[in-house]
Amino acid sequence: MSAPRRVAVVTGAAASIGQAYALRLAAEGVDVVVADVADGAETVGRVRRQGGRALAVRCDVSSAEDVRALATAAVEGFGPVDILVHNAAIYPSTPFAEMSFDEWRRVMSVNLDSCFHLFHELLPGMRRRGWGRVICIASNTFHSGVGGMTHYVASKGGVIGLVRGLASEVGIDGVTVNAIAPSLVRSQGTWTGLPAERAKFEKAAQMQAIKRTEVPADLVGAVSFLASDDAGFITGQTLVVDGGWVRA
Fold first, then answer.
1. According to DSSP H, which parts of the chain are helical?
2. Would you say residue 1 has pLDDT above 60?
3. Which CATH superfamily is domain 7-241 in?
4. 111-141, pLDDT tens digit by residue?
5. Reading across the β-sheet that carries 238-241, which strands appear in turn?
6. CA angle 201, 202, 207 (to 5 degrees)
7. Which of these is catalytic: 21, 152, 201, 245?
8. Overall pTM surpassing 0.90 (yes/no)
9. Domain ranges of the chain
10. Active-site residue, 91 included
């Protein structure tokens, strides 16, 4: 008997790292819902050209209304959602002394409150069906304590805590909840090629055991594994995929 066809929602998948996650899952036969505030047509087109199925839904993950509409569109398009890869996030760089509360709240809303909205909409169905995979993209900045973006670090620390707590509640229903913590990844959203930026990436590489810049291809295998049946006994974990920056 063939394995059931799965449906995944990948947030922040219109381009860059999220797009790489969507393409990998689609290549493995998963139907992919591309959720992003940006136009997801490019990702959908690439999935379809490689023989997969995808649809794009505009969604601000910090909006409960948008997330509710996303869940409805996913079910109407492909059926119940089995896999959630929550990748969407913002990462402004502002010293804490100069940070406004509005900026703090915006980062928390997009990076952490979004988990609340997505989990409330998508987890009940996974629990009823007895199978589900939730994968949140955290950050190794939580472990390394990078300065200049304390709101981002705090939000990703919150994601790691939420993953641990939620895993304890839904494991009995066949649902796993895990996080992946990358390093500084060279992508469309982080790379401009300016000298200062090149220096930042070079410095990051030197902090790692594997002394090269991390790219989206370094992360897709971890997402693929955690979304699979092979990872069915792994939950509440944060897999640090950062070339060995965090080794303690």
1. 16-27, 41-49, 64-77, 101-108, 114-129, 141-144, 150-170, 195-207, 217-226
2. no
3. NAD(P)-binding Rossmann-like Domain (3.40.50.720)
4. 999 999 999 999 999 999 999 999 999 999 8
5. 54-58, 31-36, 7-11, 83-86, 132-137, 175-182, 238-241
6. 95
7. 152
8. yes
9. 7-241
10. no
